[in-house]
Amino acid sequence: MNARGLRYFLAVMAAVAPLAGVLLWGWSAREIVLLYWWENVLIGFWQLLKMLTVGAWQAREGGCAVWPATLFVMAFFAVHYGGFCGGHGLFVLELTGRGEGGSVLSTFQPNMMLGPLVFVQLFALVLQNAWLALPAASFWSVASLFAMRGLAFVQDFVLTGEFKKVEVQKLMMEPYKNVIALHVAIIFGAGLTMAFEGAWPLLALIVLGKLVMDVGQIRKEGLAQDHEPGESSRS
Questions:
Q1: Which of 1, 11, 65, 112 is a plausible cystine mate for 214, CB 3.0–4.6 Å?
Q2: How far apart are CA 175 and CA 80, in angstroms?
């Protein structure tokens, strides 16, 4: 199995646990949306690694003077994207119900001395609650999504030499468009299932729809590489 075939396999594996959860274990919209919220976090991690790779390449070519600007952009992205994910995760947790522990927002005690880093504090709190709220079986989905994103980083960013062509500032804005579009669709579908309690077919369609999107993205990236001279052999 080549690297792209492995990514297809991981995409399917990432869908197995939520699909089984919906069909066999009675998972609600809450578990599904939280699972896909975790993919936001993974995207942010690999995006930071892309920035670090670009910074290392630019430092090699142009000297260490590029590092301060690169590290500043990375830090800004971490705070801004972390705040974005934290606010989104808080919305999901509050919308779908925290459970016996009560509202997450009610437990948030911001340290104003942190300034803008208070968003990092919020993100850490949401991260903890979102992890505790996930069913144990979803660990395999999170691991598969992490590996799938990691393979995309290696295959489509490192091996193709993309890191030599892109600027760190462009990478900073890259995740937002896809993340927002994906989760608006998922939350809309989850809202429908909450409105019609027990509508498991809708939840199953959300999981399958996400799988189709992942497979389509992998295929799109493969076709783009096939049209680049010398790259098709790596697919």
A1: 11
A2: 12
The string of pLDDT tens digits covering residues 30-40 is: 788 888 889 88
Q: pLDDT (tens digit, 9 = 90+) per residue, 173-186?
A: 888 877 777 667 66
Q: Report helix, strand or coil for 115.
A: helix
Q: How many helices (H) and strands (E) does the chain have?
A: 7, 0
**Separation of alpha carbons 15 and 178, rounded Å:** 19
- Which amino acid is located at 148 in the chain? M
For residue 151, the tally of other CB atoms under 10 A from its CB is 16
What pLDDT, on the 0 to 100 scale, is given for residue 77? 93
**Residues 75, 116: contact at Cβ < 8 Å?**
no
CA atoms within 13 A on the CB side of 126: 26
Nearest Cα to Cα of residue 144 among 24, 45, 17, 44: 17
Residue entry with tokens 């500043």? 72
Tell me the pLDDT tens digit for each residue of 62-76: 888 889 999 999 999
**Would you give the DSSP letter of residue 156?**
I
User: Which residue range(s) make up the domain with 85?
Assistant: 3-234
- In the chain, the number of structural domains is 1
